[in-house]
Design brief:
Elements lengths: L1 E4 L1 H4 L2 H13 L3 E3 L2 H12 L3 H17 L9 H6 L8 H9 L4 E3 L8 H6 L3 E3 L1 H11 L1 H19 L5 H7 L3 H12 L1
Parallel strand pairs: 1-2, 1-3, 3-4
Helix pairs in contact: 2-8, 2-9, 3-4, 8-9, 8-11, 10-11
Length: 184
């Protein structure tokens, strides 16, 4: 499968990391555009200078580790599209240009099914997608989550649980499913 990741999916570190590692483990492809990365950086700027520095560093790492994931699209295509939020047309333009199967986003309202259907696209919630990956190969996804938890606890010098971490990352169903699989 080929997915286009919306800004709201890339900006939270835990969600992005889990999603990309899970997709990689399933040989799925995930794409974005320079404009999506710019939106991420601009959103992080609202958190202050440190937030933007961190985002820019994460964007640089993303570009280095996912070198073939940037989709370029034409301004003409973007301007010809309609979405309820005209500022999201670039996401649709990138998905169309990249011949993606779906857009991974938290913004259901901004990407109506009837519009996406016209372009052969689906809208996928990241929590549902990770749950699908979990159903296919729970061992791999649980290992990714455990590694991510170790990294987060080390960096933050805290003791987060898997469930708390994933709920904070706006992945509540995944949090519940993985906690159940680990704790029985």
């Amino acid at each position: 499968m080929k997915y286009l990741a919306d800004t709201c999916v890339l900006f939270p570190t835990v969600m992005r990391t889990l999603l990309l590692e899970a997709a990689k483990s399933k040989n799925d492809e995930v794409f974005w555009s320079e404009k999506i990365l710019s939106e991420w950086s601009a959103s992080a700027k609202k958190l202050g200078e440190l937030g933007q520095l961190q985002a820019d560093a994460e964007i640089s790492l993303l570009k280095a580790n996912w070198q073939n994931s940037i989709i370029d699209f034409s301004l003409e295509l973007e301007e010809s599209l309609y979405l309820p939020d005209l500022n999201d047309r670039h996401v649709l333009a990138a998905a169309i240009t990249g011949e993606c199967d779906a857009i991974i986003t938290l913004n259901d309202r901004d990407f109506p099914k009837q519009i996406l259907d016209q372009y052969g696209l689906k809208r996928v919630d990241p929590d549902h997608l990770i749950l699908d990956y979990l159903k296919d190969d729970d061992t791999m996804i649980i290992e990714i989550v455990k590694d991510l938890l170790i990294k987060v606890n080390k960096e933050l010098k805290e003791d987060w649980s898997i469930r708390r971490l994933l709920k904070k990352a706006r992945l509540p169903r995944t949090a519940k499913a993985i906690s159940f699989r680990i704790n029985g």
